[in-house]
Amino acid sequence: MNGYTGRAWRENDWWVIDVDDVGTTQARTLDKVDHMARSLVADLTGAPYESVVVAVTIDLPPAIAAQVAALRAKTDQAAAQAQEASELQARLVHTLAADERLTGREIAAILKVTPGRVSQIAKKTPPAQGRRTTSRPATRSA
Predict the structure, then answer these.
(1) CA 108, CA 61: separation in Å to the nearest integer?
(2) Residue ranges per structural domain of the chain
(3) Of the candidates 65, 1, 8, 71, which has an alpha carbon nearest to the alpha carbon of residue 35?
(4) Which is the most buried residue in 11, 25, 47, 135, by most CB within 10 A?
């Protein structure tokens, strides 16, 4: 495998692609940058196109690059929080079912999800270790 690095930036209506130690080419759209960079390397070095890998960094104006970085950080943070929420939700479903003996509909009402979602969570996620998973003994009414 032939690995190369390069960078691309916008000039008027074109993306200019400079592959280190190989040369420069252009692409009309950003989704064609990888193809054009690989084609450039293959054409100028004789390497098979399929074996060429070019890691292209997109150069953006500093203000835009800062906004993109901030967005990526927020997106990563949101994904981590969503994962935490999902894990907490699964633990709560099992706690409410096993320890509190609530029905799926009751759990759904408390968690503000559908009963079908409660069923999916209950089937997908095993109960937390160390937690009681059997029902409480039934109480007799006189």
Answers:
(1) 48
(2) 2-59, 64-124
(3) 8
(4) 25
Dist CA 43 CA 80 (whole Å): 43
- Strand-pair category, 14-19 with 2-11: antiparallel
Q: What letter represents residue 43's amino acid?
A: D
Give the gyration radius of the chain's Cα atoms: 27
Residues 6+ apart with CB under 8 A from 110: 96, 102
Find all residues with CB under 8 Å of 68, minimum gap 6, and list them. 60
| Long-range contacts of the stretch 38-42 (C-beta < 8 A, 24+) | 41/2, 41/4
Residues whose CB falls within 8 Å of the CB of residue 124, separated by 6 or more in sequence, listed in order: 90
Torsion angles phi and psi, residue 58, rounded to 5 = -90, 120
Q: How far is CA 100 from the centre of its chain?
A: 35
**CA 112 – CA 93 distance, rounded (Å):** 12
pLDDT in tens, 29-52: 999 999 999 999 999 999 999 999
Residue 113 is given by DSSP the state S
